[in-house]
C-alpha cells in the first residue's frame, strides 16, 4: 500500500499560515521557509508545503483536516481559536464531533474527533 506523504497548498500569506499551523496543530517548520514557500512536517511523515499566490480560489468544500483523540481536545482547540479572535462556530455532531475554521492564507481546516 502507498502512503500519501506530501500535500501542497497555495496560500495568500505563507508566514501567517505557517504560524497558524504551528500554533494550533503542532506542525514543525525546521527550515524556516520564506514569504513565498515553506515546508511543514508532522510526526507521521507528512510534508505540507505552502506556496504563495496572489489569490486563492479553492472549491467551497475543499479543506484539510486534523483528527483529534477526543471530543474534549476538539473543544479545547475551538476555545483557543475563539479566544484568539477567529470566527468559528461551535463544534457539532455530524459525521464526527467537528468544526471548521478559515485559516490565514485562504484555506479551510476541519478539526474533528
UniProtKB/TrEMBL annotation:
It comes from the Bacteria. InterPro entries: Fosfomycin_Res_Enzymes, Glyas_Bleomycin-R_OHBP_Dase, Glyas_Fos-R_dOase_dom, VOC_core. Residues 3-113 form the VOC domain. Pfam families: Glyoxalase (PF00903). PANTHER family: LYASE, PUTATIVE-RELATED-RELATED, SLL5075 PROTEIN. This is Glyoxalase. It comes from Reticulibacter mediterranei.
